[in-house]
Amino acid sequence: MSGQKDNQEFRPELVSRRGEVIAWGSALLVNGAWIILILSPQTVTLWVPILAVPLTLVAFGISLGNWMDRHTFIKMCLEDIYYSNGLRRVRLRWQEIQEVRVLPAQWGKKIQVFSNRSYFGFHTFAKVKVDGRELGRTGFRDGDLILKELLERANLVVMEDNNSGNQSEGYYYYTRK
């Protein structure tokens, strides 16, 4: 392997934070109305907390997802691969990797990397389109390159399973020779 291929670091495309702003704005608006109703002589209808709590949870979830995206990276070194998303850190030596699964996803492909002791996953690059309009980009721009390098360095080969009639189309996996 050339020195040029060593210590490569890859980061995913970052999605717009507009959805996060909208979610927090909606949650703050409903929670603000709830507080005003509590402080006033008005009675609070059950619908206010039923709406406020899920909106707040959704806003937290979107913020967490965006924060994790901004802290996610994959680093390929001569002896190992390192994955981190801010909450989870996985370092696997190439010979530890036992299986790589490639699954079709709504946008791009979902790549799952397994060893006997750990696991991580990532998505390949995709453009998010609705009605022919591009709304954003997601996944790792070099996701196919990451997959190719990972398979070469871990010395994995595609598994042919002719007896498996229940595998979904587009799903395949790689294991040790």
Structure description:
The protein is α+β, with helices and mostly antiparallel strands and 177 residues long. Helices cover 33% and strands 32% of the residues. The chain has three helices and eleven strands. The chain has helices spanning 18-39, 47-70, 143-154; strands at 8-10, 73-76, 80-84, 89-93, 97-104, 109-115, 119-123, 126-130, 133-138, 156-158, 172-176. The strands form three sheets. The chain has a five-stranded antiparallel sheet, covered by helices on one side. It is elongated and about 75 Å long.
Described by its quaternary structure, the protein is single chain
Adjacency order of strands in the biggest sheet: 7-6-5-11-10
Strand fraction equals 25-35%
Radius of gyration: 22 Å
> What is the 3D shape?
elongated
Number of helices, where a helix is a run of at least 4 consecutive DSSP H or I residues: 3
First-residue to last-residue Cα separation: 20 Å
Order of helices and strands: EHHEEEEEEEEHEE
List low-pLDDT spans: none
Number of strands: 11
Mean pLDDT: 89
User: Sheet with the most strands?
Assistant: 5 strands, antiparallel
Q: Helix fraction?
A: 25-40%
**Class from helix and strand fractions:** alpha+beta
